[in-house]
Amino acid sequence: MTSNQSISLKVEENSLRLDSYLAQNLSDLSRSRVQQLIEQGHVKLNGDICKSKKNTVKQGDAITLEIPTAEPLELKPENIPLDILYEDEQILILNKPAGLVVHPAPGHPNGTLVNAVLAHCPNLPGIGGVQRPGIVHRLDKDTTGAIAIAKTEVAHHSLQAQLKAKTARREYLGVVYGATKQESGTINLPIGRHPKERKKMAVVPVEKGGREAVTHWFIEERLGNYTLMHFQLETGRTHQIRVHSAQIGHPIVGDSVYGSGRSVGVNLPGQALHAWKLQLKHPLTNNLVEVVAPPPQVFSTLLQVLRRR
Q: Bridge-partner residues for 176, per DSSP?
């Protein structure tokens, strides 16, 4: 959610608590964050400031929500090793390891990819905003692989535009439980914040706040009761591949949030999902830049173990 944002909603349902209604209809805000905004007087109900989260809204009510400017985080350069796949004066493409959070946030104030990149690129602060300098897309903490960083405002604008226009190509490798009957397919199911577990995402109808999410897949290798899948993202929703895989009955191996948690005999640091290939156009030359990120050793070990079975 961007800062200084004003959101207006027209209620179409009856007898819902104000905080519940807002949390269900604003997928980027947790219920606790909504309650905080209500208590701070940032929510108006039919033009009047409403400070009670327990107020009931009814059909026809008008709600206005103001998102106050976020306090900038104090970002410090940290000497964290980087696996650089490509770099020039405009862009930096890294092979992110498991366990590394992309940017600082509550609970992760430092030790992030951004802190590492700031040490490598001293001129980065301010590129694309103070909170997430240079960041144009994300990988989950325990997802490994290729991630692009913008080193200039020109690059930041270009990469964001490519992602929005779906011309940047992002391909992943993932090991899933089970075996699909089909050799390939497309999952087109909207994703939004889980209605009850606010740290999770889920398949949520668009009318309930879900956003379009499209994942293309095909089988790379069948491994008995497991499958090595090749995924291509058309959209980039939070946890998209993990949610979609679980939704079709084939969760990512090692995914403790959306999977079964069953052991596979390999000590995985997280989900067996790797951003394998990134393809984009260079911001200045328009030439194609294609980078392949070698999977981590534990991913290769998992495949060897499953093949031997």
A: 227, 252
- Contacts (Cβ under 8 Å, ≥6 apart) of 234: 166, 214, 215, 216
pLDDT of residue 196: 84
Q: So what's the pLDDT on residue 173?
A: 98
Q: What is the DSSP code string of 83-131?
A: -EEEE-SSEEEEEEPTT--SS-BTTB-SSSHHHHHHHH-TT-TTTT-SS
Active site residues: 140
The DSSP code for 243 is H
Nearest C-alpha neighbor of 283 from the set 119, 155, 153, 141: 155
35 vs 205 pLDDT, higher one: 205
- Residue 176 CA to residue 280 CA, distance in Å, equals 27
Angle at the Cα of 200 from the Cα atoms of 198 and 204, rounded to 5 degrees: 90
Judge contact between 254 and 262, C-beta under 8 A: no
In angstroms, rounded to a whole number, what is the distance separating the alpha carbons of residues 79 and 214? Answer: 37
> If DSSP codes are grouped into helix, strand and coil, which group holds residue 140?
coil
8 Å CB contact between 231 and 218? no
Reported confidence tier of residue 112, pLDDT bands at 50, 70, 90: very high
Residue 287 has pLDDT above 80, yes or no: yes
Say yes or no to pLDDT of 3 above 60. Answer: no
Number of CB atoms found within 10 A of residue 122's CB: 8
Give the CA radius of gyration of the chain.
21
C-alpha span between 206 and 237 (Å, rounded): 13
CB 41 within 8 A of CB 66: no
Q: How far apart are CA 158 and CA 280, in angstroms?
A: 10
Q: pTM of this prediction?
A: 0.77
Q: What is the pLDDT of residue 158?
A: 94
Q: How far apart are CA 117 and CA 77, in angstroms?
A: 7
Residue 2 has pLDDT above 50, yes or no: no
Write out pLDDT tens, residues 191-222. Answer: 998 988 878 999 999 988 899 999 999 999 99
Report residue 27 as tokens: 């997928």
